[in-house]
Amino acid sequence: MYDMGTRKRVLSLVSQGRSLNSVSKETGVSRAAIRSWQVNVEPRKRSGLPCPRCGDAPGLPADQAAYSYLLGLYLGDGCINEQRRGVHCLRIVMDNAWPGLVDACEAAMRSVRPDNSVCRVKKQGCVAVTATSKHWPCLFPQHGPGKKHDRKIVLEPWQREIVDTHPWEFVRGLIHSDGCRIINWTEKVIAGELKRYEYPRYFFTNLSDDIITLFTDTLDSVGVEWQQANHRNISIARKASVALMDTHIGPKY
Fold this sequence. Notes:
Blueprint: H1 4-15, H2 20-27, H3 31-39, H4 64-77, E1 78-82, E2 88-95, H5 99-112, E3 118-123, E4 126-133, H6 136-139, H7 157-165, H8 167-178, E5 179-190, E6 193-205, H9 209-221, E7 227-230, E8 233-236, H10 239-248
Helix pairs in contact: 4-5, 4-7, 4-8, 7-8, 8-9
């Protein structure tokens, strides 16, 4: 990269009628660079939107609802891998059985980083939705070495603000990654007759105690009652809470 003074001095020599070869030998600037400066002397401006987090005055992502959903997906089934020259790849693996969820994941990635391309990598039984950016660690500071359940997962204050504003999007992201809606059934003898009863239920499964706490704290904030089935499973079975989940989340699709 040459400064503006060098560019203008080189172009001044060329304007005197000297050949590109002689100017290149005198200045050490390649002929290809000189030819490009004859078309556009100004340095190329960076394209793309700036990162909302690593500027002089950090701000929130523009589409906070999409970010809250994407944060839930990332905490459930996402990872960030460093590639060359400081570029990072966000990868969220989705089951092939739920094409609507794959579409929603891709849409959220595009909304959070509009100028970064998003692609789908097909694998056996699943799809990895990926996007590269230097700024994924800025947007997901929970990124770190090792598995999520082996390290501390805590939201930054600015992330907490977004989740508090868009709690259902966060819950939806977690359910779409590590949760499900199932139909439970039981049989009872009523007046001597065996009857079968069916009822819907939500489950969320994760090995990280911190992520489970983020999930249950958010459920508390929206009025959903839950029970801890075991150390890794959260159950939502009360009729009113299931109805509330159905209104905002619903089955995978």
